[in-house]
Amino acid sequence: MNFLHHERAELEALMPGLDQALARHPLAALEQTPSPAIEEFKIAGGPGLLVPAAHCGAGASALQAVRVQRAVGARCPSLAVATTMHHFSIAGLVEAAKYGNGPEGLLLEAIAKERMLVASGFAEGRPGQNILTPHITAERRGDRIVLNGSKMPCSLSRSMDLLTASVALTGPDGVERLAVALIPAASPGVTVRPFWGTPILAGAESDEVRLTDVELDPSMVVATEVTADAVPDALNVAGFLWFEVLLTAGYLGMASALVERVLHRQGGGEDDPTPYLVPVEAAMLAVEAVARAMADEDWDEALLVQALTARYAAQDAIARTTRACLAALGGMAFIGSPDGSYLASAAVGLTFHPPARTRMARPLREFLDGRALRIG
Fold this sequence. Notes:
Blueprint (H helix, E strand, L loop, with lengths): L4 H10 L3 H6 L3 H5 L4 H8 L18 H14 L1 H21 L6 H11 L3 E3 L15 E6 L2 E11 L7 E9 L5 E9 L5 E4 L13 E10 L4 E7 L5 H32 L9 H23 L4 H36 L2 H9 L13 H8 L8
Parallel strand pairs: 1-4
Antiparallel strand pairs: 2-3, 3-7, 4-5, 5-8, 6-7
Helix pairs in contact: 1-5, 5-6, 5-8, 5-9, 6-8, 8-9, 8-10, 8-11, 9-10, 10-11
GO molecular function, one term: flavin adenine dinucleotide binding
Keywords: FAD, Flavoprotein, Oxidoreductase
InterPro entries: Acyl-CoA_Oxase/DH_mid-dom_sf (IPR046373), AcylCoA_DH/ox_N_sf (IPR037069), AcylCoA_DH/oxidase_NM_dom_sf (IPR009100)
């Protein structure tokens, strides 16, 4: 069947063997914690997807990345959510490196070569403010940098090799500048506490990571020349673009897994597929359009609005599609297996990620009227 053909071909090209490895496990086994999906992702080289080729990564484009995330979401929803945060962390580090002082390239190379998992301690920022608004404080103590704070929920909390976190660091000149800290998970003072209370997407390991007097060598902190009160909007927009397109593609993959079950169900070969197929395919085309634009156009507020539009359109498509698919699968499928209802519940999770559609109503109206975009 041609449904999801392009996405799975892209996944196979960039992470050989992952799709087949995930397909060998029942959905329930993949979605529990600990999940075998995370180790399969590492084996397939997934951590290096967005690491530039110059630093030994796959150097995937935005278009390739969203197709990969849809394919992953169709096999393992929790892995799609968890790896979105890994890829977002890598993309943030790559963007921060443009303002950095050199060592970040070695860090990216280590992540790709050693297949390290990177959890995200970044906060969602606002245009005109810092996308990396710190949850975590940093201070210099002698020749060390000491971190305190927490991030919750934090995907990959129990499997991470590194935690990336934005910090505001005061330099020798007394000026506070933006920095990105890379914190080894085994560092003294790093603890993980239970936070995620639902079985839905439990395999993403979205618990609390707490830092208590965690000491870092300064080489593990990527300093920039950007002052904490003057972070360029380019960082904000880049972070939000990657976050929205990767996340949306993953959740569309979850809805697509339901569509695939409907298309393969016994006796369904003569049905009109459009009620299930068209909404998710159209939503994915919108995501791909933004991903293509990321390769060719300026990363500005107008493109971010397009990404948000694609994301909110996907939420509508997911709601329509999951209802239609569950109805088509019927009561016996609901009784006989939890997979359908699980996928429907997981796919709805896109609604809960920031920025919420209701909070963006006024900012989008103001942007249409010619004012700067705010993230509500």
